Amino acid sequence: MKIESVMGRWTVWVPLVALVALVLSWGRDLPLLAVVAVALCLAGAVLAAVHHAEVVAHRVGEPFGSLVLAVAVTVIEVALIVTLMVDGGDKSASLARDTVFAAVMITCNGIVGLSLLVGALRRRIAVFNAEGSGAALATVATLATLSLVLPTFTTSKPGPEFSAAQLTFAAVASLGLYGLFVAMQTVRHRDHFLSVAREGAVKDGALSDDVGFDDDEHSGVPSRSIALFSLVMLLIALIAVVGDAKAVSPTIESGVDSAGLPHSVVGVVIALLVLMPETLAAVRAARRDQVQRSLNLALGSAMASIGLTIPVIALASIWLEGPLLLGLGATHMVLLALTVVVGALTVVPGRATLLQGGVHLAILAAYVFLAVSP
Predict the structure, then answer these.
(1) Which of 20, 118, 310, 366 is placed for a possible disulfide with 174 were both Cys, Cβ 3.0 to 4.6 Å?
(2) Ramachandran region, residue 89 (left: φ > 0; alpha: ψ -120 to 50; beta: rest)
(3) What is the predicted pLDDT for the residue at 77?
(4) pLDDT at 140
(5) CA distance 204 to 351
(6) How many Å from the N-terminal Cα to the C-terminal Cα in the chain?
(7) Of 197, 326, 217, 227, nearest to 6 (Cα)?
(8) Would the pTM count as exceeding 0.70?
């Protein structure tokens, strides 16, 4: 299939419309009707991003496909966090912490729980590669502890924040661990992150069909030109997703304030909006019995959210005024510990049922409830 034949598809023009909406709404106070229009564009861009991510993943195979989406979303998420921190004043001192922790909880409990639930409903037992998933979870737990737990207990500065030297160490350690994990995932131990058959053998990393392209009548793998075109459209769609999310964020903030909710709820809503493409992609992969790809997306996104955000925030703190609060409170530390323990018990067997999926979703529900009612 040639590029000309896909130019008229909704997956091409919807992200462009969403990008136009972003340009028209940037830096302006929007009336309610305009906010609704931008929100619709946001939803369309999310669906388009999922489609293009699957095309790219179908071309490059696993684990590169899930890595492309995770890194692309996280890079733009970091840009959104920094932009909101610049504009937000003192109220944004904890925005990075709230958004990153929300991303960890949503990915490690929400996306993982939904993927296991869908996979178990389809095959009774969801099967995945315990070696790769366990390594990813261990890296996420280490990154979260170094960046979000330790600031609560350090004594160099009052409050849950790092000193300049401690923040530099956390940034270097986060970036180094993330880089090491990517090297293991894509080069040295790539087979640990591929789907496994029910008999335990590693399956090929390519996706099944249902991507929407049939360039090769035998394999259905998109051509290089189609994959490159989808990669460009994926970036456009993700820019539109995050930009439109920023455009509606003032309405979200005013709604949160009007409802008398904690300001940390803003970080939760932003993380939910930004992670929609990965959530939908993970659920669709689980429906195709590719639970490993779903876990790659979930845990890879959690890891990228910490491993890329903390170094950038550390650099941004040089010119950002005010404190940078990174340390979690007691309630959130309990939820993080519960997530790590339950996650370890889930991934070690390499098999999961509906129960494990339900447990993870229950933890996410507890997090969202306590964010609204601390």
Answers:
(1) 310
(2) left
(3) 72
(4) 95
(5) 19
(6) 53
(7) 227
(8) yes
Give 104-135 pLDDT, tens digit per residue. 999 999 999 999 999 998 888 998 989 889 99
Provide the 8-state DSSP code for 3: G
Say what the pLDDT of residue 234 is: 84
Task: Tell me the residue type at 193.
Answer: F
Tracing tokens 């460009």 back to the chain, one arrives at 232
Please tell me the predicted confidence (pLDDT) of residue 87: 63
What whole-number distance in Å separates Cα of residue 160 and Cα of residue 162? 7
Going by C-alpha positions, the residue among 354, 367, 326, 308 that lies closest to residue 107 is 367
Whether residue 205 has pLDDT greater than 70:
no
Q: What is the mean pLDDT of residues 16-34?
A: 84
135: Cβ contacts below 8 Å, ≥ 6 apart:
181, 184, 189, 192
Q: How many CA atoms lie within 13 A of 283 on its CB side?
A: 13
φ and ψ of 201, to 5 deg: -80, 150
> 217 in helix, strand or coil?
coil
How many CA atoms does the CB half-sphere of 60 hold within 13 Å?
A: 21
**Which domains, ranges and CATH numbers included, belong to the chain?**
3-205+213-372 (1.20.1420.30)
Q: At what angle do helices 330-347 and 95-105 cross, to 10 degrees?
A: 30
Kindly state the DSSP code that residue 362 receives in the 8-state scheme.
H
Integer Cα distance of 357 and 374 in angstroms: 25
Q: Which residue matches tokens 């999961």?
A: 352
CA angle, residues 176, 145, 78, in degrees to nearest 5: 60
